[in-house]
């Protein structure tokens, strides 16, 4: 490290901003190919390992973790389901993902567990993650020596990482996407008039697989975390205050929306975590500016109904790592220059699927009764047509990356 003006300067090949799924998978993928990287992250390790988010991994994400030697705990502790249940008009319909996709399963393994496994392995490999940084900024993106500047420990010394490329993996609110000049990017967005209220409860599982329920009172989702802890969501007003939702009110909505006509019942338990999230679809095109490449939530957002966000973030960095490997092996930029176009083809399909699942399953008061009936017809079609069920299944378990 040398002093350059007031900043301490250091050098690496790929500077990565953000230790979420995108940044951590990228660091591992590059390390396997002998490419150096440093991650800077503005939260501390306990915070990133404790944030409750996604739950479902696509089959190829599971395969990738195993290939990278990062899957041992996941294979012991995750829940593997052969399908999901769609519930509407008080009836359950099993979609046999495994049968319809030639053996691909639904894996439930919480995002923060993936983060824990990837952080531990990265540090064991001697990789560097600079936690708890402040004032991250990006510089000289149009040159072949782009720089990430930040303060150590939020208000400590200023450091600069000089690198060949910057990977902006800093989520929806990070500084990377805004570093692409506004005139050089187009943003596509849809904001939904509803949100999800999510809870964690200490209770045994009520059902052997995930249930996605369409109900006139609004959508509900039953998921799991472990034999002792369950994850459930209900559609709500995104601007609602969580203080308006007593535990009794949450359970009464869950019972009403998940009820069946055949006597199935939901098991309650103490609620130890609850919160409300808003829902949007968002895409930034292109995902590159000079030597900056953005990936994951920094570049796109999907509503969680399709369980795609984490998986899309990983798919982006698989594509990006291939371009970087090509560059370091042969000096060729062609594959890197194709990164945005290649990634966006798959991203738009995941955007379509997430929008489709969201509109089909939620109650939108702004829609006409005609449109609401169309969603029920769509569900009825999906559960009775092998072709339609196959289309849903192949999207849910994950489209191929190539
Ligand atoms: P992340 O996870 O937001 O990580 C970005 C990291 O960057 C850091 N950062 C900065 N670091 C340095 N300097 C700065 N200025 C920085 N600003 C930010 C942040 O601290 C953070 O650590 O983005 P990434 O890696 O792109 O990963 C995206 C996924 O996290 C996200 O898409 C999923 O959680 C979405 N999602 C789901 N995805 C799935 O694939 N399957 C699911 O079942 C699923 N369920 C969900 C979800 C998201 C949810 N919420 C809470 C939005 C369920 C929910 C409720
Ligand atoms: C979760 O378990 O958190 C979960 C499952 C399925 C989704 C979204 C979230 O579609």
What does this structure look like?
By secondary structure, the chain is of the alpha/beta class. It has 12 helices and 22 strands. It has helices at 21-32, 45-50, 59-67, 72-77, 97-100, 111-124, 247-258, 309-330, 334-337, 339-361, 369-384, 386-396; strands at residues 2-4, 7-11, 14-17, 37-40, 56-57, 79-81, 84-88, 91-95, 106-108, 128-130, 134-139, 147-151, 158-162, 165-168, 186-202, 211-213, 220-224, 229-236, 271-285, 288-289, 292-294, 300-301. The strands form 4 sheets. The protein has an 8-stranded mixed β-sheet with strand order 8-7-16-17-18-15-19-22. A 6-stranded mixed β-sheet has the order 10-4-3-14-21-20, with helices on one face. Strand 16 (211-213) and strand 17 (220-224) form a beta hairpin. Helix 8 (309-330) runs antiparallel to helix 10. It is globular. It starts with a strand and ends in a 6-residue tail after the last helix. P-hydroxybenzoic acid (PHB) is lined by residues 54-56, 210, 223, 231, 304-305, 307.
């Amino acid at each position: 490290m040398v002093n350059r003006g007031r900043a301490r300067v250091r050098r690496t090949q790929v500077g990565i901003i953000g230790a979420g799924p995108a940044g951590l998978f990228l660091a591992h993928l590059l390390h396997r190919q002998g490419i150096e990287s440093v991650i800077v992250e503005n939260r501390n390790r306990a915070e990133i390992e404790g944030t409750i988010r996604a739950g479902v991994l696509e089959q190829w994400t599971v395969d990738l973790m195993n290939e990278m030697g990062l899957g041992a705990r996941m294979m012991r502790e995750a829940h593997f389901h052969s399908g999901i249940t769609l519930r509407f008009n008080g009836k359950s319909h099993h979609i046999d993902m495994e049968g319809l996709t030639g053996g691909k399963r639904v894996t439930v393994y919480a995002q923060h567990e993936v983060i824990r496994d990837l952080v531990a392995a990265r540090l064991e490999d001697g990789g560097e993650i600079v936690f708890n940084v402040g004032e991250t900024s990006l510089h000289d993106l149009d040159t072949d020596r782009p720089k990430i500047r930040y303060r150590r420990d939020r208000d400590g010394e200023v450091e600069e990482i000089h690198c060949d490329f910057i990977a902006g993996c800093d989520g929806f609110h990070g500084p990377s996407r805004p570093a692409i000049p506004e005139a050089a990017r187009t943003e596509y967005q849809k904001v939904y008039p509803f949100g999800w209220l999510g809870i964690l409860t200490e209770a045994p599982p009520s059902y052997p697989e995930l249930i996605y329920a369409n109900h006139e009172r609004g959508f509900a989702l039953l998921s799991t975390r472990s034999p002792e802890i369950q994850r459930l969501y209900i559609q709500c007003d995104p601007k609602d205050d969580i203080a308006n939702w007593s535990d009794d009110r949450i359970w009464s909505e869950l019972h009403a929306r998940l009820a069946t006509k055949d006597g199935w019942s939901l098991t309650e338990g103490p609620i130890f975590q609850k919160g409300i999230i808003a829902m949007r679809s968002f895409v930034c095109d292109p995902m590159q500016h000079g030597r900056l490449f953005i990936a994951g939530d920094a570049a796109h957002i999907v509503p969680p109904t399709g369980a795609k966000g984490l998986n899309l973030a990983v798919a982006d960095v698989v594509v990006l790592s291939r371009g970087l490997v090509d560059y370091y092996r042969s000096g060729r930029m062609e594959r890197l220059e194709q990164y945005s176009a290649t990634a966006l083809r798959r991203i738009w399909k995941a955007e379509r699927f997430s929008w489709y699942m969201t509109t089909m399953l939620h109650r939108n008061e702004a829609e006409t009764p005609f449109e609401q009936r169309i969603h029920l017809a769509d569900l009825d079609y999906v559960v009775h047509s092998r072709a339609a069920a196959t289309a849903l299944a192949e999207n849910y378990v994950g489209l191929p990356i190539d």
